[in-house]
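so my prof wants the structure for this chain in the C-alpha coordinates format not the other one, which i didnt know existed until like an hour ago. anyway here's the sequence
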Amino acid sequence: MRIDILTVLPELLESPFNHSIIKRAQQKGLVTLCVHNIRDYTTYKHRQVDDYAFSGGAGMVLMIEPIANAIVKLKSERNYDEIIYTSPDGEKFNQKTANTLSIQENLLILCGHYKGVDHRVREHFITRELSIGDYVLTGGELAAAVITDCIVRLIPGAISDEQSALTDSFQDNLLAPPVYTRPAEYNGWKVPDILLSGNTDEIEKWMMEQSIERTKKFRPDLLNEENDL
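here's what i got, hopefully its the right format
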Protein backbone atom coordinates (compact mmCIF):
# COMPACT_ATOMS: atom_id res chain seq x y z
CA MET A 1 0.00 0.00 0.00
CA ARG A 2 1.03 3.59 -0.64
CA ILE A 3 -0.39 6.63 1.13
CA ASP A 4 0.44 10.13 -0.13
CA ILE A 5 -0.36 13.09 2.08
CA LEU A 6 -0.61 16.72 0.97
CA THR A 7 -0.04 19.31 3.70
CA VAL A 8 1.27 22.80 4.38
CA LEU A 9 2.96 21.55 7.56
CA PRO A 10 4.78 18.28 6.78
CA GLU A 11 6.82 18.60 9.97
CA LEU A 12 3.74 17.75 12.02
CA LEU A 13 3.71 14.23 10.56
CA GLU A 14 7.35 13.36 11.12
CA SER A 15 6.96 11.98 14.64
CA PRO A 16 3.73 9.96 14.17
CA PHE A 17 5.15 8.23 11.09
CA ASN A 18 8.58 7.44 12.52
CA HIS A 19 7.71 5.36 15.54
CA SER A 20 6.02 2.18 16.65
CA ILE A 21 3.83 0.11 14.30
CA ILE A 22 3.83 2.60 11.43
CA LYS A 23 7.62 2.76 11.41
CA ARG A 24 7.93 -1.04 11.45
CA ALA A 25 5.34 -1.42 8.69
CA GLN A 26 7.40 0.89 6.50
CA GLN A 27 10.60 -0.97 7.30
CA LYS A 28 8.92 -4.25 6.33
CA GLY A 29 7.84 -2.76 3.02
CA LEU A 30 4.15 -3.16 3.86
CA VAL A 31 3.35 0.51 3.33
CA THR A 32 4.99 3.52 1.73
CA LEU A 33 4.13 6.89 3.26
CA CYS A 34 4.98 9.99 1.25
CA VAL A 35 4.35 13.45 2.69
CA HIS A 36 4.26 16.30 0.19
CA ASN A 37 4.52 20.00 0.98
CA ILE A 38 1.81 21.87 -0.92
CA ARG A 39 4.12 24.90 -1.04
CA ASP A 40 6.37 22.96 -3.43
CA TYR A 41 3.59 23.13 -6.04
CA THR A 42 2.76 26.82 -5.97
CA THR A 43 3.78 29.31 -8.67
CA TYR A 44 3.21 32.32 -6.43
CA LYS A 45 5.92 34.41 -4.82
CA HIS A 46 7.07 33.53 -1.33
CA ARG A 47 5.56 30.04 -1.77
CA GLN A 48 2.07 31.39 -1.13
CA VAL A 49 -0.68 28.77 -0.90
CA ASP A 50 -3.52 30.69 0.76
CA ASP A 51 -5.58 33.83 0.15
CA TYR A 52 -8.60 35.70 1.44
CA ALA A 53 -12.07 34.31 0.79
CA PHE A 54 -14.17 36.11 -1.82
CA SER A 55 -17.04 35.98 0.66
CA GLY A 56 -15.08 38.06 3.14
CA GLY A 57 -14.76 37.35 6.84
CA ALA A 58 -11.89 36.19 8.99
CA GLY A 59 -9.49 33.44 8.03
CA MET A 60 -7.59 32.33 4.96
CA VAL A 61 -8.43 29.69 2.35
CA LEU A 62 -6.07 27.24 0.66
CA MET A 63 -5.86 28.13 -3.04
CA ILE A 64 -6.88 25.71 -5.76
CA GLU A 65 -3.82 26.04 -8.02
CA PRO A 66 -1.10 24.56 -5.76
CA ILE A 67 -3.38 21.71 -4.68
CA ALA A 68 -4.50 20.99 -8.24
CA ASN A 69 -0.87 21.00 -9.41
CA ALA A 70 0.06 18.49 -6.73
CA ILE A 71 -2.89 16.17 -7.31
CA VAL A 72 -2.54 16.20 -11.09
CA LYS A 73 1.16 15.34 -10.82
CA LEU A 74 0.59 12.51 -8.38
CA LYS A 75 -2.32 11.11 -10.41
CA SER A 76 -0.09 11.06 -13.48
CA GLU A 77 2.19 8.63 -11.62
CA ARG A 78 -0.43 6.21 -10.26
CA ASN A 79 -4.14 5.61 -9.91
CA TYR A 80 -5.67 6.41 -6.52
CA ASP A 81 -8.45 4.34 -5.04
CA GLU A 82 -9.54 7.32 -2.95
CA ILE A 83 -8.56 10.99 -2.73
CA ILE A 84 -9.51 11.95 0.80
CA TYR A 85 -9.99 15.39 2.29
CA THR A 86 -9.87 15.77 6.08
CA SER A 87 -12.73 18.06 6.99
CA PRO A 88 -14.92 18.60 10.07
CA ASP A 89 -17.99 18.26 7.86
CA GLY A 90 -16.90 14.98 6.29
CA GLU A 91 -18.38 11.57 7.09
CA LYS A 92 -17.42 10.29 10.53
CA PHE A 93 -14.34 8.08 10.30
CA ASN A 94 -14.86 4.73 12.00
CA GLN A 95 -13.45 1.20 12.14
CA LYS A 96 -15.58 0.02 9.23
CA THR A 97 -14.13 2.76 7.03
CA ALA A 98 -10.62 1.92 8.23
CA ASN A 99 -11.17 -1.73 7.28
CA THR A 100 -12.32 -0.73 3.80
CA LEU A 101 -9.41 1.63 3.20
CA SER A 102 -6.83 -0.86 4.51
CA ILE A 103 -7.35 -3.16 1.51
CA GLN A 104 -6.82 -0.40 -1.06
CA GLU A 105 -3.59 0.01 -3.00
CA ASN A 106 -3.11 3.78 -3.28
CA LEU A 107 -4.61 6.52 -1.13
CA LEU A 108 -4.13 10.28 -1.28
CA ILE A 109 -5.01 12.43 1.73
CA LEU A 110 -5.34 16.22 1.55
CA CYS A 111 -5.01 17.91 4.92
CA GLY A 112 -7.41 20.76 5.45
CA HIS A 113 -6.03 23.97 6.96
CA TYR A 114 -7.00 27.53 7.81
CA LYS A 115 -10.69 28.03 6.86
CA GLY A 116 -10.50 25.11 4.45
CA VAL A 117 -9.76 24.72 0.76
CA ASP A 118 -11.19 26.39 -2.32
CA HIS A 119 -14.41 24.46 -2.80
CA ARG A 120 -13.53 23.63 -6.40
CA VAL A 121 -10.91 21.24 -5.04
CA ARG A 122 -13.65 19.35 -3.23
CA GLU A 123 -15.92 19.40 -6.26
CA HIS A 124 -13.42 18.19 -8.85
CA PHE A 125 -10.69 16.17 -7.11
CA ILE A 126 -11.90 14.76 -3.80
CA THR A 127 -13.63 11.37 -3.78
CA ARG A 128 -14.20 11.10 -0.04
CA GLU A 129 -14.30 13.50 2.91
CA LEU A 130 -13.55 12.24 6.41
CA SER A 131 -13.86 13.72 9.88
CA ILE A 132 -12.41 12.17 13.03
CA GLY A 133 -14.87 13.95 15.31
CA ASP A 134 -17.25 16.81 15.87
CA TYR A 135 -14.63 19.40 16.70
CA VAL A 136 -12.24 21.64 14.79
CA LEU A 137 -8.47 21.16 14.71
CA THR A 138 -5.92 23.76 13.66
CA GLY A 139 -5.22 21.64 10.61
CA GLY A 140 -5.94 18.25 9.12
CA GLU A 141 -2.48 16.84 9.79
CA LEU A 142 -3.46 15.24 13.09
CA ALA A 143 -6.58 13.80 11.46
CA ALA A 144 -4.47 12.41 8.61
CA ALA A 145 -2.13 10.82 11.17
CA VAL A 146 -5.06 9.21 12.98
CA ILE A 147 -6.56 7.88 9.75
CA THR A 148 -3.18 6.56 8.56
CA ASP A 149 -2.47 4.86 11.88
CA CYS A 150 -5.87 3.12 11.88
CA ILE A 151 -5.36 1.91 8.32
CA VAL A 152 -1.75 0.76 8.58
CA ARG A 153 -2.21 -1.35 11.70
CA LEU A 154 -4.81 -3.40 9.80
CA ILE A 155 -2.41 -4.36 7.01
CA PRO A 156 -1.46 -8.04 7.43
CA GLY A 157 2.00 -8.22 8.98
CA ALA A 158 1.95 -4.74 10.50
CA ILE A 159 1.11 -6.19 13.90
CA SER A 160 3.00 -9.27 15.05
CA ASP A 161 -0.21 -10.95 16.23
CA GLU A 162 -2.62 -10.32 13.36
CA GLN A 163 -5.53 -11.63 15.44
CA SER A 164 -5.02 -8.71 17.81
CA ALA A 165 -6.38 -6.17 15.33
CA LEU A 166 -9.43 -8.34 14.68
CA THR A 167 -10.41 -8.23 18.35
CA ASP A 168 -10.11 -4.47 18.77
CA SER A 169 -13.00 -2.33 19.89
CA PHE A 170 -15.51 -1.48 17.14
CA GLN A 171 -14.58 -4.41 14.87
CA ASP A 172 -17.99 -5.98 15.51
CA ASN A 173 -19.69 -2.77 16.62
CA LEU A 174 -18.79 -3.80 20.15
CA LEU A 175 -16.34 -2.40 22.66
CA ALA A 176 -13.52 -4.69 23.72
CA PRO A 177 -13.91 -6.61 27.00
CA PRO A 178 -11.79 -5.79 30.07
CA VAL A 179 -8.25 -7.17 30.00
CA TYR A 180 -5.96 -8.14 32.88
CA THR A 181 -2.40 -9.34 33.36
CA ARG A 182 -0.12 -10.39 36.24
CA PRO A 183 -0.27 -10.27 39.17
CA ALA A 184 -3.57 -12.06 39.63
CA GLU A 185 -4.13 -10.09 42.83
CA TYR A 186 -2.93 -6.60 43.67
CA ASN A 187 -3.86 -4.58 46.74
CA GLY A 188 -6.74 -6.96 47.30
CA TRP A 189 -8.08 -6.44 43.77
CA LYS A 190 -8.46 -9.79 42.03
CA VAL A 191 -8.63 -10.81 38.40
CA PRO A 192 -12.01 -12.49 37.64
CA ASP A 193 -11.78 -16.20 38.45
CA ILE A 194 -13.06 -17.21 35.01
CA LEU A 195 -9.94 -15.79 33.36
CA LEU A 196 -7.73 -18.00 35.52
CA SER A 197 -9.80 -21.15 34.94
CA GLY A 198 -8.15 -22.25 31.69
CA ASN A 199 -11.61 -23.04 30.26
CA THR A 200 -11.33 -21.46 26.79
CA ASP A 201 -15.00 -21.80 25.90
CA GLU A 202 -16.17 -20.20 29.13
CA ILE A 203 -13.58 -17.45 28.85
CA GLU A 204 -14.72 -16.58 25.32
CA LYS A 205 -18.32 -16.57 26.48
CA TRP A 206 -17.44 -14.25 29.36
CA MET A 207 -15.53 -11.92 27.07
CA MET A 208 -18.46 -11.65 24.67
CA GLU A 209 -20.86 -10.97 27.53
CA GLN A 210 -18.53 -8.26 28.84
CA SER A 211 -18.24 -6.68 25.39
CA ILE A 212 -22.01 -6.52 25.06
CA GLU A 213 -22.51 -5.10 28.53
CA ARG A 214 -19.80 -2.47 28.11
CA THR A 215 -21.22 -1.43 24.76
CA LYS A 216 -24.73 -1.12 26.19
CA LYS A 217 -23.36 1.00 29.04
CA PHE A 218 -20.85 3.23 27.27
CA ARG A 219 -21.77 3.22 23.56
CA PRO A 220 -25.35 2.06 23.07
CA ASP A 221 -25.35 3.90 19.73
CA LEU A 222 -23.10 1.15 18.33
CA LEU A 223 -25.72 -1.51 18.83
CA ASN A 224 -27.88 -2.23 15.81
CA GLU A 225 -30.02 -4.98 14.37
CA GLU A 226 -27.02 -6.73 12.85
CA ASN A 227 -25.68 -7.44 16.34
CA ASP A 228 -29.02 -9.04 17.27
CA LEU A 229 -28.43 -8.19 20.89
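also thought this was worth mentioning. Residues 33 and 227 are 36 Å apart (CA to CA).
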